[in-house]
Structure formats: structure tokens, C-alpha cells
Design a protein that fits this description.
It is a single chain. The chain has 338 residues and is an alpha/beta fold. The protein folds into 2 domains: 163 residues, 3-Layer(aba) Sandwich (Rossmann fold), CATH 3.40.50.300; 125 residues, Zinc Finger, Delta Prime, domain 3 (Up-down Bundle). The chain is built from 15 helices and 5 strands. β2, α4 and β3 form a beta-alpha-beta unit. α4 packs parallel to α5, α9 crosses α10 and α14 packs antiparallel against α15. The longest helix has 19 residues. The mean pLDDT is 92.
Length: 338
């Protein structure tokens, strides 16, 4: 099973969690804040295992009967709080069924009952208010670990009753070391994954370990390049996005990286290019389009991400995104002299 030593970076946060687990002085609510793929869930599972571990000198020890159960996610005192598959949010009914109806039942095997909410971004206001009722007078044995991309997504009243821990992206050298030690990918691919991940391990692992994501990457780069050049790709790009709506965050991240590289080249910071294999195309686009247009295109992608988080219609939003970028590329005032 994974231990605190397996967490790369964020040493101050890791040491705080390890110290808390050893002392047995856990508080009732923690908020783990950080971008998707940064390792919040891994850290939360290790912290939960450490709190329940029978060997307090080396938590989690990985050998006691408790660790055996936590390693396979079969410990009855660790509850994963998740939304229903047919729902877009984690609502009050989920909190009521998975937390409120069980939290006052004492732990079965240990001194803590731990609730892991790894989809904290999806908590509705009603769900948070339901959680708040428990946090106002929680059972001493209850520990809640809520994972969110931004703490601002949670109510101030929930945050005020929680310990907030921020997980930051790794340095590129640390990300590279992780990929070299934990994957079988060749060195050049590890170096690219380290650059592309921008310190977010999960993002790089998708490229190195999942062929589907590698194909998504190649297709997204091709379509983004075609869109910026003025090619007839809008219909294909829209269908591509809609066919992979569960992976839209990954697709838009790639779009942003491509546009980011174009902006850096346009201002003379060529050394910051991430997509080195696409350098020639990036240089051509950066030379033909103004920085203003490229930045506006990035803003359009960011707005699209925000709209999706607010449950906007996926088809309409995708088409509007692509048309907005195309319009920016075609505005004469936004085109540089070649």
C-alpha cells in the first residue's frame, strides 16, 4: 500500500498529516485543495489509512490487519461519498443517505469513522448545508476529508469549521523523477509528460499510461492547429468534443497549452514552448496571428470550461467556443503582418 513517503512534493502538508496521524489528534473536518490530478485523493487515502493504522510508530505500516483492509478499500470505517451515476452533482439526498444516516453510528473497528468526499467540486449548496449541520456538532470520532479544486467552491461556513490544506503543483524536476520511477515510458516521453503536466502528476500519467488519452492528445492538437489556421474543422472538432464529453477537461487543457505556446512565441519567449514537437506549426501561427487574438482564444476556452462547470448545454457551448475562436482568428485587427 502507498505511504506518506510515496507522495511527491508538498512536504509541509505531508508532514502535518503524518504528525496528526501519529498523535491521534485528528480534527473533524479537512479540506484538501488542489487541481484535478494533483494527488489529493492519494493523500487523503494515505491519511485515512494512517489514522486507523494499529502501529502508531510507522503510519500507515502496511502490514497490520487494518492496513490490509484499507489497502483494498474494504475497511468499514472509511466511507467514500460519491454522487449517483445518473446525477451531475452531489446533492442533499446523497449527503443524507451516505453521511447523515450513518455518521452517528459509532465506528465498527477503529477509533475513527472517516468520510472521503473526493467530488467536493460537485457539492450543491443544499448538500453543503446538510454537511454543515453535522460539522456544527460532530461526533468526536467523525473525520471528513473534502477534496476540491478550489476552496472557494465551498461555503465560508464549511471552510470556517475545517482545516484547509493546499496541494501545489510539483516542480518539473520532481514530476520528471516521478514519471521515471513509476512508469515504463522512455526518457523522452517522461520529459514531455513532465513539461505537459505542469506539476500535476495525474495529467502526465494519462499520457504515459493510457493509449486513449495519447490519441486524444494527438487529435486535439491536430484540430486546434487546423482551427487556428482557418481549416474546415469546426464540425469535426465539435463532434470530437461531444463524443468525449467525459474528457472535456483534458481536451481543453491541451487547447490551452497549444495557445499558450503560441502566445509565448509571439512575445519572444520561445524557450517556454511545451509542445516542442509542434514548434514549427506554433511558430507559423504565432507569426500570422496577433497576441491579442491568441489571448482572446484562451479566454474563450476558459469561459467554456466555466460554462460547463455551471451545467451549460454541451453542444451549444462547444459550437460557440469554436466559432468564437474562429472569429478571433479572422478579425483583421487581430492579424499580424506576415
Amino acid at each position: 500500500m502507498k505511504k506518506f513517503e510515496d507522495i511527491y512534493g508538498n512536504r509541509r502538508v505531508v508532514e502535518k498529516l503524518k504528525s496528526t496521524a501519529k498523535s491521534g489528534d485528528a480534527l473533524n473536518s479537512y479540506v484538501f485543495e488542489g487541481l484535478a490530478g494533483i494527488g489529493k485523493k492519494t493523500a487523503a487515502e494515505i491519511f485515512a489509512a494512517a489514522l486507523l493504522c494499529e502501529n502508531k510508530q510507522n503510519v500507515p505500516c502496511g502490514v497490520c490487519s487494518t492496513c490490509a483492509k484499507t489497502a483494498t478499500q474494504n475497511h468499514p470505517d472509511i466511507i467514500y461519498v460519491r454522487k449517483k451515476k445518473d446525477k451531475a452533482t452531489l446533492g442533499i439526498d446523497d449527503v443524507r443517505e451516505q453521511i447523515m444516516e450513518t455518521v452517528y453510528v459509532k465506528p465498527l473497528l477503529s477509533g475513527y469513522k472517516i468520510y472521503l468526499i473526493d467530488e467536493g467540486d460537485l457539492l450543491t449548496v443544499g448538500a453543503q448545508n446538510g454537511l454543515l449541520k453535522i460539522l456544527e456538532e460532530p461526533p468526536s470520532y467523525a473525520v471528513f476529508i473534502t477534496m476540491v479544486s478550489k476552496a472557494s467552491l465551498l461555503l465560508d461556513t464549511v471552510l470556517s469549521r475545517s482545516v484547509r490544506l493546499a496541494f501545489l503543483p510539483l516542480a518539473e524536476t520532481e514530476a520528471l523523477r516521478y514519471f521515471e520511477e513509476h512508469t515504463d515510458a522512455e526518457e523522452s516521453k517522461c520529459r514531455f509528460a513532465a513539461r505537459f503536466s505542469q506539476g500535476i502528476i495525474g495529467r502526465g500519467l494519462k499520457l504515459l499510461e493510457n493509449e486513449e488519452y495519447a490519441e486524444l492528445f494527438e487529435t486535439t492538437v491536430r484540430l486546434t492547429e487546423g482551427l487556428l489556421r482557418g481549416g474546415a474543422v469546426i464540425s469535426e472538432f465539435e463532434r470530437f468534443i461531444l463524443d468525449h464529453k467525459e474528457k472535456t477537461d483534458f481536451i481543453t487543457d491541451i487547447m490551452l497549452v497549444f495557445l499558450r505556446d503560441c502566445v509565448f512565441v509571439s512575445v519572444g519567449k520561445d524557450e517556454k514552448i511545451l509542445l516542442e514537437e509542434r514548434e514549427q506549426a506554433i511558430r507559423q501561427i504565432a507569426g500570422a496571428k496577433s497576441k491579442k487574438a491568441l489571448v482572446a482564444a484562451m479566454d474563450a476556452v476558459l469561459l467554456y470550461q466555466k460554462r460547463l462547470s455551471q451545467n451549460a448545454n454541451g453542444s451549444c457551448a462547444a459550437l460557440e467556443l469554436l466559432m468564437s475562436i474562429r472569429e478571433e482568428m479572422n478579425v483583421k485587427s487581430n492579424r499580424s503582418q506576415i
